[in-house]
Design brief:
Length: 293
């Protein structure tokens, strides 16, 4: 897998009325993203409602996605867990299913000291033959990957980047020293795409791209090609929508938005449920302002 730049969509999982995976709709979404310039597709992340998915469902989605995409863009499968042995097995399974890379979250709840955090990622990378992207999101995990651990892991030949979703630009600046042609930093927050790019980032792993794939790609590529002002204007223009896509816990608002657009991606698996009606109307207004509906 060559180094990815641009917009990587953190893809939602569409469901049927009985809450089974809607593979027909999934196929439509995959084709739509490729047609609209999405540079890579992340499946089975938090935005995919992975905590409520079985491993059998995960594998079915991975197999289907790999076959449907057919090598048109890279496929990254999220194989994270707070059990390192499980991460190793999931990562090997997704590798066998044809994923181009895996993404691993920092171990949540049980957390880890520095050495445990290092081994959690390194032990997986030692075993698999496809690249690994780390995922730092302390708001979800209750822990952050220490800066010096990121530095150690950036030297591993099989660890190619980090999705950074702390929202802490000071942290991004501290790990920026490790960014190079073999180790990429991706914004994990749509509201700070440009600030992360300005610190050496290569792109974004995006929720926004579920509803505005071409615009998200164009924003990143404009910046990387030197049109800083054009990218800045677009980041500012979309801020209200970006903020309202997180008016409730992700992925509730983005799936609501997709349904408002007529994409019919279905509902949510508990404990997630439909948005508060007042929040849905706030979201609707920002979508109208952005020209989505």
């Amino acid at each position: 897998m060559n180094r990815i730049t641009g917009s990587i969509v953190a893809l939602i999982t569409p469901f049927n009325e009985d809450m089974s995976v809607n593979f027909t709709k999934l196929g439509e979404l995959l084709d739509w993203h490729i047609e609209n310039k999405t540079d890579a597709i992340l499946i089975l992340g938090t935005t995919s409602e992975s905590p409520t998915m079985t491993h059998e469902e995960d594998l079915d989605i991975c197999h289907y996605t790999v076959e449907r995409v057919g090598g048109r863009v890279p496929i990254i499968a999220s194989s994270g867990s707070n059990c390192t042995a499980s991460v190793i097995q999931y990562s090997l399974d997704f590798q066998a299913a044809g994923a181009d890379a895996v993404m691993n979250i920092a171990p949540y709840y049980n957390k880890a000291n520095k050495e445990g955090m290092y081994r959690h990622f390194a032990d997986v990378a030692d075993v698999i033959d496809i690249p690994l992207i780390m995922y730092n999101v302390p708001g979800r995990t209750g822990c952050s990957i220490p800066v010096d651990v990121v530095g150690r892991l950036s030297q591993h030949e099989n660890i190619v980047g980090i999705k950074e979703a702390s929202g802490d630009l000071s942290y991004v600046a501290k790990i920026a020293r490790y960014a190079n042609e073999n180790f990429a930093i991706y914004s994990g927050n749509d509201d700070v795409i440009l600030p992360v790019l300005s610190l050496g980032g290569s792109g974004v792993i995006s929720v926004l791209a579920n509803v505005m794939p071409e615009e998200t790609h164009n924003m990143v590529m404009s910046y990387l090609k030197g049109d800083v002002n054009g990218a800045m204007v677009e980041q500012i223009r979309l801020m209200q929508l970006i903020n309202n896509l997180f008016i409730e816990v992700n992925p509730i608002p983005v799936k609501e938005a997709m349904n408002l657009m007529g994409m019919n991606v279905g509902g949510f698996r508990l404990p997630l449920c439909e948005a508060d009606p007042a929040n849905r109307e706030i979201l609707r207004a920002s979508m109208e302002s952005a020209g989505l509906i």
